[in-house]
Design a protein that fits this description.
The structure is a homodimer. By secondary structure, chain A is α+β, with helices and mostly antiparallel strands. The first copy, chain A, has 2 domains: 3-144, Jelly Rolls, CATH 2.60.120.10; 151-235, Winged helix-like DNA-binding domain superfamily/Winged helix DNA-binding domain (Arc Repressor Mutant, subunit A, Orthogonal Bundle). Helices cover 38% and strands 23% of the residues of chain A. In chain A, strand 5 and strand 6 form a beta hairpin. In chain A, helix 4 crosses helix 6 (200-212). The longest helix of chain A has 27 residues, at 124-150. Chain A is globular. The A-B interface holds A 51, 67, 69, 71-72, 75-77, 79-80, 90-92, 97-98, 120-121, 124, 127-128, 130-132, 134-135, 137-139, 141-146, 148-150, 196-197, 237, 239, 241-243, 245 and B 51, 67, 69, 71-72, 75-77, 79-80, 90-92, 97-98, 120-121, 124, 127-128, 130-132, 134-135, 137-139, 141-146, 148-150, 196-197, 237, 239, 241-243, 245. The structure holds a DNA duplex.
Chain lengths: 246, 246
DNA sequence: CGGTTCATTGAGCCACATCAAGAAGTGTGG
DNA sequence: CCACACTTCTTGATGTGGCTCAATGAACCG
């Protein structure tokens, strides 16, 4: 289900400057390296299950995962989309609060929970970085509540595409304002629907509607081109004055 | 709009064991006391405005507030209900991400932002407590996403009442399982609707429906009695196996 | 080339929103 | 203490956005 991956030096790690280790100096990186291990799992693999123990704190190095909860009757809501540098697990608690599932092949940089908790106490740069990331995640989760609670299906889909494009561009180094953007959709229509609090049919219909309105192009169902990023952002109700952050 | 409140010693503070100071020893409390100040604001007063500067980090000592965002066209979504020991503001950023408004008279224990950031660096017990509280808030925000995205109006209202009762009981010391509960509703129907992603009419109708079904009693519109807490929890889709946390 | 999975599209319905009117509670001034 | 205004809550009537059910289409794969 998962395979061990050779350990690479932190200096060449793609998330060196955005993960929990971002603020670390070389001495601290050495401490991290001493206890880290990598793990790679295929698309579809579970990375955590709500209520079950989770003995590692992991950062996503490459790939994409969802965090979700499923109610007893099968209704599912995704509560977070995890991209490189996002973390899974929490210090001080061995029990996972949500299901986490790999959407693509995912490579994790992992620390055994106890060892990571010790690290938090010993290396202030890790603790402060984790606090900052958690505060950012909290803001993002609250922003998403506005989407789920108050937006129409069309706004939800447009907001999702815009925020996904922003995050992908943050990793790469594109110009975030205006012009055309091309990207791969890491989520199926069903995963998008679960994230947006919609059904798969409504999600599909809104994608079609946005396409017919010329706001997006769909060379394949999993690839999207946004000819005018600003126009789509407007559709998302994002007037650029700092409404949403996600 | 706000009035200065006499400073009381931390040892008699009602949130001494649940706020950011919870883990502090007496020496650390002395450091906090040296820079804290109190402020009391009347119901309805704004405690923060999205996009504007917020030069204090504050804990709610008594009272109740909402954190919300309003879209340009007037749609509003509450993203957090703040009760005693919850905090307002964030270290490392002077700009508020959301509006915060007092629902009742609120007394705050405040720290000037820069001084609090220094405190975070110098007193590990404050930093670790803040991290733990933020992780808890993040879990709660994600739990709430499930409510907003996937629950029916009836389930939303029941879930809200159950979680409010749980939080109030946590402050007091009631038995959380089973039996009857009586509490004051700190929110108007409109504030409830904004929190639940519903209209005020639907919220009112669901309250009436729960009353007619014998699940709640409403001696006044702002006071509620839950004759059988377990029955209402069931209505909320909470089977007690650790679904929701909020 | 059939089987399987995923996405799209259509038809009809229903939960919740919207629009509108009362009712109940709250405060103010005479 | 009452009269009046005002706000909040409740209830009713109607509309509609998104859900449900159902079928078809497209991509992938052995």
């Amino acid at each position: 289900m998962s395979k061990l991956t050779p350990i690479v030096p932190c200096t060449t790690c793609p998330i060196r400057h955005s993960a929990v280790c971002a603020e670390c100096d070389s001495d601290e990186l050495a401490m991290l390296s001493a206890i880290k291990s990598y793990r790679t799992v295929p698309a579809g693999a579970p990375l955590a299950s709500a209520g079950e123990t989770l003995e590692h704190f992991s950062s996503i190095v490459t790939g994409c995962a969802t965090m979700s909860r499923t109610l007893e009757d099968g209704r599912r809501q995704t509560v977070g989309l995890l991209l490189p540098s996002d973390y899974i697990g929490r210090p001080g608690r061995a029990q996972a609060a949500f299901d986490v599932e790999a959407l693509s092949e995912v490579t994790l940089c992992r620390f055994e929970r106890r060892a990571f908790e010790k690290l938090l106490r010993d290396t202030p740069h890790v603790a402060s970085r984790l606090l900052k990331m958690t505060l950012d995640e909290l803001d993002a989760a609250r922003d998403w509540a506005v989407v789920l609670g108050r937006m129409t299906a069309r706004e939800k889909v447009a907001t999702f595409l815009v925020s996904l494009a922003r995050r992908q561009m943050a990793v790469a180094l594109g110009d975030p304002i205006g012009g055309p953007v091309t990207m791969h959709l890491p989520l199926s229509r069903e995963a998008m629907a679960d994230h947006l609090g919609l059904t798969i049919e409504t999600t599909s219909r809104q994608m079609t509607a946005l396409r017919k309105d010329g706001l997006i192009e769909l060379p394949t169902t999993r690839d999207i081109r946004i000819p005018d990023f600003g126009a789509l952002a407007l559709e998302a109700g994002d007037d650029g004055d700092g409404g949403l952050i996600v």
